[in-house]
Amino acid sequence: MSGTWVVFEGGDGVGKTTQIDLLAAWLRSHMPDVVVTREPGGTPLGVELRAAVMHGDHVAPRAEALLYAADRAHHIHAVVRPALERGAVVVQDRYLDSSIVYQGGARGLGDEVERISMWATEGLLPHLTVVLDMAPTGDRLERDLDRVERETAAHAAQIRAGFLALAERAPARYAVVDAARPVDVVAADVRAAVERLL
Ligand code: TMP
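# thymidine-5'-phosphate complex -> structure
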């Protein structure tokens, strides 16, 4: 496959959407075929699965993991693989690391989650995963948080640690970018990491 595939990962609220938009605009000024997509929800079927998994009634953790994997299987088959085969640059919001970190780690489903996604995608891995990294509570001190904020921060800290651990496991395929800095500074680092691939 002749294309280039860049995935963005990170906790909720780290600025993925903004950085994806900026990277896509820059890429489009340099090359003709740039595909911006996301999981869950990068296909018509995926939009339905996204609604089911994110806005449905309580979804059992294993059902949730399988819905993300189903979205992923279809998305890779219908969008990502064809785009890479024709030589496009694919910029994607979240991929299987999100399942490893959210379902495998935070929900406690363990290593099988990764195997399910690898089966779903026939083992397709991005050329680069950009982890947008940010401390969950910013400058606030633990003692200034109420109970709910503390729980939310603990969950976010677990998610953050999960992505950093994945990046450490395969540093050649990752760029960890400090996302707590101004948008244009973060964007410049992202662009530099992607430029090295092209
Ligand atoms: P997003 O709007 O940033 O893409 O958020 C989607 C939410 O879904 C986010 O909280 C992370 C979660 N998610 C998982 O739990 N597992 C997954 O495999 C994916 C792709 C997303």
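# post-check
The chain has a mean pLDDT of 95.
The chain has one domain: 4-197.
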